[in-house]
Amino acid sequence: MKAFVFPGQGSQYIGMGKDLLEVAEDLFREASKIVGFDLYSLCVEGPEIELNKTENTQPAIFTVSYILAKEVLKAGIKPDYLCGHSLGEYTAAAVAGVFSFADGVKITRKRGELMQQAQPEGKGAMAAVLGVDEEEVKNICRSVKSGYVDIANFNCPGQLVISGERQAVQEATELAKQRGAKKVVLLQVSVPSHCLLMKEASELFRDFLSHFKFSNANIPIVTNVDAIQKTNSQEIFESFIKQLYSSVLWQDCVKYMISKGVNTFFEIGPGKVLAGLIKRISPEVKIFNIEKIKDIQTLKEEIE
């Protein structure tokens, strides 16, 4: 069985989607009209500071990943499950027919804007903690005195991401080092995602999303908030709201799909972050990366 998985924020880079204009000029034009600037040019030429702004990053990654997924489907490769890491869940939903491509661009653009507005610049922070087990990181977060911090991402064994108020995140990283962390990396993000600091933004997002028509998914989507497959449109809608302030249970999502018989994963979109995480979770599964058109041709040859 096969699963398509889609990357989230942090996977963007200048040059992504460069070879996609020939196959999807109409979609880039449509997305550019929605966001109000040349999205293809931003993806390919930057500037990086603009591409890395949350409200630009999200529709950019969504557009590139969606176009690639459509090309993989055209090549005759069909998934049994879909899953995305945070933002990637919106690509999964569009591929599953929950909403249109255009609506996906509008939704991811607004999601980025609301997340950016939720916290003043510099107030929040996120950090990756490597080599400390889950219970220890939970204890560290609980023991922090300088403010709020919690686990945002359960990515793979030995890799967790914490999120919260900057001072609290910094205190937690110092505690993690004292308790044997192999590595602690403060992430280059301006928004503390997947924690309670996004609760207010999630309510504004609910109001915005309620104006869109959601359909039932035609391929099951394994959602970040509970690592369970969903096809019901209302359940998917609710998981999007909750996802903003809840932990991303990536490790559990991958394990769930494997438990259902998935043995081949296709990471579709910029970067190779998810492939690395999946290998750490389950070294025996097959993983293919699709971030260029030529990758699809190579994939067809390997599968045939």
Question: How would you describe this protein?
Answer:
Helix 4 packs parallel to helix 5, helix 5 (88-95) packs antiparallel against helix 6 (101-118) and helix 9 runs antiparallel to helix 10 (233-243). Helices cover 49% and strands 16% of the residues. Helix 12 links the parallel strand 9 (264-268) and strand 10. It is α/β, with parallel strands linked by helices and 304 residues long. Strands 2-1-9-10 form a 4-stranded parallel beta sheet, with helices on both faces. Strands 4-5-3-6 form a 4-stranded antiparallel beta sheet. It has a two-stranded antiparallel ribbon with strand order 7-8. It folds into 2 domains: 2-118 and 196-303, Malonyl-Coenzyme A Acyl Carrier Protein, domain 2; 124-186, Malonyl-CoA ACP transacylase, ACP-binding (Alpha-Beta Plaits). The protein has 13 helices and 10 strands.
